[in-house]
Amino acid sequence: MDVTTLLFIFLIGAIATYFSGDKFASKIALLFSICAFGFSLYLLNELRLGNNINHISVWITNPKVYLAFHADGLSMAMVLLTTSLIPIIIFSSFGNQFSNAKSFYSLVLFMSFAMTGTFLASDGLLYYIFWELALLPIYFIALIWGNGDAEQRKKAVFKFFIYTLGGSLFMLIAFAVLYQKAGSFLIEDLYKIKLSLTDQTWIFLCFFLAYAIKIPLIPFHTWQAKVYQKAPTVGTMLLSGIMLKMGLYSIIRWQLPIAPLAAKHYLFILVGLGIGGVIYGSIVALRQKDLKKLLAYSSLAHVGLIASGCYTLTLDGLRGAVLQIIAHGFVIVGLFFTAEIIFRRFETRKISELGGIRSQTPKFSSMFMILVLASVALPGTFNFIGEFTVLNSLAQINLWLALLGGTTIILGAYYMLKMFQNVMLGENNVKTFADVTFNEGLVLVIILGFLLFFGLYPNPIVEFITPSLKNILLAINRT
């Protein structure tokens, strides 16, 4: 069995979930997501043993397009991030009631199928198809099951759809140009193309538009906060925990090795954009009155730092970026889930209307506090490993860049601890805050366990991703 089996598990799961009916949809979706996670662990073991789990076959003869799926340390790390978070996200939704649940959960699994395909595809056109397929489910999830005013939600989701679709079309143009030069969409063939700096610059910019919108990076971020706020929490988790990581992964896998001269030429501009996102996201987060919007801008700041690490073109930068991608995926899902737990009880996300939760449920408050500390990269948490490595890579280029990038820790600590103080401490809310249920507690314990375990022992992940990152650096430095 190869990696395509994992895709079939998600695809069959989406179909089975839809036909299981609303009553059993959530449970069937959870079952298939757990099966996908189990099979991804099997693939991980096969990869470690050196067995071939890749797949390639001809799909279209003219133009020459392959069903090519390749797994290495980088792609498997992203696949494992996806397959581990999907069951957590689905299980976390058991406290909510969704109309037409069969459609909702089948869309979640179909989105998982598309995102997994994006991480595994090694043919450019195939990769583009999966990239676009991932957009459709989240569009309907946010549009149909989102919250707040319907008209505002429609405008926010439509803007997100047009932005991402428009940016992705530039990427398709880049692939068409590359195919004319290589006669193939296969990634190994695209890596070998000799392009001038001018040609690489245009190719690089086409990729950059697609990725900068998806991540998002400033000034392409204007869709993000509203969509995160208006989408149901499951949709926000999918967007922030996994989908935006498609853009960061693609920078490393596709953009940098295909157009390395352009990446080197514009290095300081690109790193500067990432750090600009850190500072902008942090400052705007300070002013937010809605809990989900605050977390959305916090995410914007963190992904800006991750992107700056990618564009340093150093091993520490790439490695730190991947570590932070994984850590951020877990911590942001945990934070949005805590916001959902609070909303289930108080029916509001306005920070000014919260408070006094700690006196009613110390257990939940303690878990929330650990997530906040992980978010601000407290030593001992997995986030610290990634952020420190990225900052180290920035220092290798310019010490001032590292100092500016480090503001994410200082500003992040300020607005996150201030948020914790306003939400969890202070005077009691007039409503009673019921303690977390077993299901809610289990989700939080799993997330916290992951962040603390790999915060103390990150070596397994570091050693797993490093060889593939070294190969990518060889491709970047081939000229």
Description:
With 479 residues, the protein is an all-alpha fold. The chain contains 22 helices and two strands. It has helices at 4-19, 25-48, 73-92, 101-120, 124-133, 135-145, 150-182, 187-191, 197-214, 224-230, 233-258, 260-265, 267-286, 291-310, 315-346, 357-360, 362-375, 382-397, 399-405, 407-424, 438-456, 459-476, and strands spanning 55-60, 65-69. The protein has a two-stranded antiparallel ribbon with strand order 1-2. A hairpin with a 4-residue loop joins β1 (55-60) and β2. The longest helix has 33 residues, at 150-182. It is globular, with a radius of gyration of 21 Å. The two termini are 37 Å apart.
Note the topology.
Layout: H1 4-19, H2 25-48, E1 55-60, E2 65-69, H3 73-92, H4 101-120, H5 124-133, H6 135-145, H7 150-182, H8 187-191, H9 197-214, H10 224-230, H11 233-258, H12 260-265, H13 267-286, H14 291-310, H15 315-346, H16 357-360, H17 362-375, H18 382-397, H19 399-405, H20 407-424, H21 438-456, H22 459-476
Antiparallel strand pairs: 1-2
Helix pairs in contact: 1-2, 1-4, 2-3, 2-4, 3-4, 3-11, 3-15, 4-5, 4-6, 4-11, 5-7, 6-7, 7-9, 7-10, 9-11, 10-14, 11-14, 11-15, 11-22, 13-14, 13-20, 14-15, 14-18, 15-17, 15-18, 15-21, 15-22, 17-20, 17-21, 18-19, 18-21
